[in-house]
Amino acid sequence: MRQGLKLILADHFKDARFGEARNSTEALSRVTKENWDVMVLDITMPGRSGLETLRDVKRLRPKLPVLVLSMHPEDQFAVRMLKSGAAGYLTKESADEELVGAIKKVVGGGRYISPSLAERMASYLTIDVQKAPHERLSDREFLVLRMIASGKSVSQIGKELFLSVKTISTYRARLLEKMDMKNNAELTHYAMQNSLVS
């Protein structure tokens, strides 16, 4: 995937230099040591999630435009990523046609969203739409929901997020309450139905 993106971009940005990272740790290391004009970030990668990595990148380099590239549908993640500081959101299926324009837009200081997402966001402004249950969650609760739904235990989640089992249990209790659900099976079923986990 990274090689394909590089080929597309090298064709349009002749003098550009490219850097790659396989996971969030590598990405953050490069961001602190190197001066980039733009970062293309995947939501799903080994180690920490793209959402958490985005927050760290914006803390380390607040002015660095980050274009999020994801296999997840826009309606599940785009608004959350934009609120967390992303300069744009692009799905992998539309990357071939839209990537170059999206990069030019965010490097120029703008924000990139697809026409379909722009339309959806405009409809939110004109219609009082009740929020989907997962949209009521904080970013950390949302992350815990996705990890529970992908079959991870509370202790595994604690280890991955460097948090105590008690803290993860508190997040779990909060998200169950906010989503009006009783157990992990209901959470998992909801996450699968709404394409929140791959």
Overview of the structural elements:
The chain is mainly alpha-helical. The protein has 2 domains: 2-126, Rossmann fold; 133-193, Arc Repressor Mutant, subunit A. Helices cover 56% and strands 7% of the residues. It is built from 10 helices and 3 strands. The chain has helices at residues 2-12, 24-33, 50-60, 74-83, 95-107, 115-126, 139-149, 154-161, 165-178, 184-193, and strands at 39-42, 66-70, 88-91. It has a 3-stranded parallel β-sheet with strand order 1-2-3, with helices on both faces. Helix 1 (2-12) crosses helix 5. The chain is globular and about 55 Å long. It starts with a helix and ends in a 5-residue tail after the last helix. 27% of the residues are buried. The mean pLDDT is 85.
Describe, in short, the structure shown.
56% of the residues lie in helices and 7% in strands. With 198 residues, it is mainly α.
